[in-house]
Design a protein that fits this description.
78% of the residues lie in helices and 1% in strands. It has 16 helices and 2 strands. Strands 1-2 form a two-stranded antiparallel ribbon.
Length: 395
């Protein structure tokens, strides 16, 4: 396999993928912190419907991830599936800009996540194929850092535009297409395939999990249990508004989350490479349980800022590290399929998570949504400790 020229220790594909992630999240996060406010304040939608929208958007589109991963392995192509996925997400923006009912917002969110379902597994496989095994943690950490840096810039721009445009949500939704278009152009002109079709293994990848051992299956189960309590971040945004954070300041609160997420992703990746990914992942599960307990009991606006900052630290610790760990326990010729299975299972768990989270908010209390998330995170941490012991016993 031809070696890429390195830039700051990373191959060209990893660097370009980082910038692609930056611009797409710039686009997405101009919209995301405004969507629950748009639904609740402008369209008058209740929290159960908001949970339904987020659950359907994430989970139904997640079904594509396993097929996308399998298809990417089957045809030996990452680049054009990535381009298709990022293009579809960008084209979802006009629908929310002209929305007059919650079903339009659902359609836009579904199309956006549909695009993500196509692009995520090939993108993760491309990063894994373009990186030496010893540096997987920092490579995925870079991708998450760039992605999240875009998620810092997006809310900041949304905050400025809210003031300039007198809270005109729709114009901001239209303008969010611009960075999305840049992301697609970067893929088309700068990403290079790592694996030519002629070098693929003779056994074509099949849509099955028989290629993966018990470690992969157990880890995916743990991730699914955790995801059942990890309801959509829109509930965190609504919780912030409930405690007294103004509409104009909501993007800045979300910016704080993404800034800490971005700044912690690469150090967390380096730490996982040096000290062990399992330790970092376990720490993340414990931190999440403490955080969601905090969101359950918070009543002071000042505390919201700290909670969002620590939520960013949790994401920095776990998001890239989990994928880097996953890359070490899957066969090399089935990387995209494996990432597709992982992302699909986690995504499907988000449907009941967001539906139940919305139901708990409306019918019991907002705090109940977060207590439930804390409990499932503790359960996932206990399961992961069993996983660690089982791995030690079998090695």
């Amino acid at each position: 396999m031809r070696k890429d020229k390195k830039f700051f220790g990373f191959g060209k594909n990893v660097i370009v993928t980082g910038f692609v992630s930056f611009f797409m999240d710039f686009s997405s996060e101009m919209i995301y912190p405004l969507v629950p406010l748009f639904l609740s304040n402008i369209l008058g939608v209740n929290k159960s419907i908001i949970g339904l929208i987020e659950g359907i958007a994430e989970s139904t589109a997640s079904l594509l991830r396993v097929f996308s991963g399998w298809f990417s392995d089957r045809i030996g192509n990452r680049k054009w599936l990535m381009a298709a996925g990022y293009s579809i997400s960008t084209l979802s923006r006009p629908l929310i800009a002209v929305a007059s009912g919650w079903h339009h917002v659902l359609g836009s969110r579904f199309i956006d996540r549909f695009g993500k379902g196509i692009r995520v597994a090939p993108r993760d496989a491309l990063i894994a194929e373009s990186t030496d095994k010893a540096y997987l943690g920092r490579a995925f950490g870079l991708q998450r850092a760039m992605d999240t840096f875009g998620a810092v810039v997006g809310p900041a721009v949304a905050f400025l535009l809210l003031g300039l445009l007198s809270n005109n949500y729709r114009t901001i939704f239209w303008l969010s297409m611009i960075p999305g278009i840049i992301a697609v152009l970067l893929i088309v002109f700068f990403i290079k395939e790592k694996k030519e079709p002629t070098t693929l293994c003779l056994e074509k990848p099949t849509l099955t999990i028989k290629h993966f051992d018990w470690r992969f299956k157990f880890f995916v189960l743990i991730a699914a249990v955790f995801a059942l309590g990890n309801s959509s971040d829109v509930f965190l945004i609504l919780r912030a508004q409930q405690t007294g954070v103004s509409v104009v300041m909501i993007p800045i609160v979300y910016l704080v989350f993404n800034l800490v997420y971005s700044l912690s992703s690469i150090p967390a990746g380096i730490a996982s490479d040096k000290f062990g990914r399992k330790r970092v992942i376990l720490s993340g599960f414990v931190l999440f349980a403490v955080l969601y307990y905090g969101f359950a009991v918070v009543s002071d606006t000042k505390d919201i800022w700290g909670l969002f900052a620590f939520y960013g630290l949790f994401m920095g610790l776990t998001e890239g590290t989990q994928k880097a760990f996953l890359a070490t326990i899957i066969p090399p010729d089935f990387k995209a399929t494996a990432f597709g299975v992982y992302n699909t299972v986690v995504g499907l768990a988000m449907l009941p998570a967001s539906l139940f989270g919305g139901w708990l908010w409306d019918h019991i209390s907002p705090s109940a949504t977060f207590y439930f998330g804390a409990v499932t995170s503790v359960l996932a941490a206990l399961m992961f400790m069993v996983f660690i012991l089982a791995v030690k016993k079998n090695t």
